[in-house]
Amino acid sequence: MRTENEVVDVFPDVTALTKAAGEHFVLLAKDAVAARGVFTVALSGGSTPKVLYTLLATDQSLRGAIPWSNTHFFFGDERHVPPDHVESNFRMVNEAMFRRLAPISTRIHRVPAENPDAVNAAAQYEANMRELFGLKGLVRAGFPRFDLILLGMGPDGHTASLFPGTVALGETKRWVVANWVEKLKTHRITFTFPVLNNAAEVILFVAGPDKAPMVAEVLGRAGNVPRYPVQMVQPRNGVKRWMLDKPAASLLAPN
Ligand code: 6PG
User: Fold this and answer.
1) Which tens digit of pLDDT belongs to each residue from 9-59?
2) Which residue ranges have their beta carbon within 6 Å of ligand 1?
3) Residue 254 resides in a domain
4) What's the 83 CA to ligand 1 centre distance in angstroms?
5) What are phi and psi of 143, to 5 degrees?
6) Domain CATH code at residue 130
7) Three-state secondary-structure class, residue 93
C-alpha cells in the first residue's frame, strides 16, 4: 500500500536505474544549495548503491553539476568496524566515490565506528550532526531535516540498520543509536525513524530479483498494516521515492 507522498519509479535495468538516480541526485543537490546554501545527504551502505556512487564521481556531466563543496555527506548507518575494514560502509563509499573526487573537496561526516564502544560512537556521531544541523538552522521539530536520505532494503525488509525485531525500531528521541542485531551478532550504528521521517526526500534504491518478494509485500498489498521496518519509513513532510529496477519490481501487479 502506498501513502500519498510515496512515488514508485521502475527502470528497465540497473544501468537505467542508476542513471536516473544520479540525475535526480543532481537535481536535489542544486535545489538545496540554491535554497539554503548546503545539500545534506545521508548515504546507504550495502552493495546496491556502489554503482551510483561511482557514477556520481565519474560521469562527467553528473560530476560537473554536483555542488560538491557545499555538500555534506553523512551515513544513514555504519557497521561497528574501523573505516578500513572490508565491511565498512565508509570504505565502500570512499573506494566508489570519495577517493575519485580529487582535487574536488567535499564534506564527509564519517561515523567513528572504530570506537570499541558502539553506544559512545553513536553518541559522538549524533553530537557531530547536532553541531552541523544546529549551526545551519536545519533542525525541524527537534530532528535534522536532511535534503536526501538514500536507503537500501534487505530481503527481510530492514532498511539502514533498522532490522525486524530490534530495539532501535522503537527509538523516538535519539537521532543515532547503536542497535544490537542478534542475527548478525553485532551492533550497527544507525539513524532512527524520527530522523528518516524528518527528511525532505528518502530514496529507496532497490535492485535485483532477490528483493522482489519484499517489494511486492510492502508495495503490493493494499491496506496492510506496516509489518517491516522499510514500511515505517514515512516522511511526514517529504517524499518517499522507490527507485527500482525491473527484476526488483517483477512481482508487483502491472499498475
Ligand atoms: C547496510 C545498509 C543496508 C542495506 C541493505 C541492502 O549497511 O548494509 O545500510 O540497509 O541497504 O542491507 O543491502 P544490499 O544493497 O547489499 O542488498
Assistant:
1) 999 999 999 999 999 999 999 999 999 999 999 999 999 999 999 999 999
2) 44-48, 77, 89, 152-154, 158-161
3) no
4) 17
5) -135, 155
6) 3.40.50.1360
7) helix
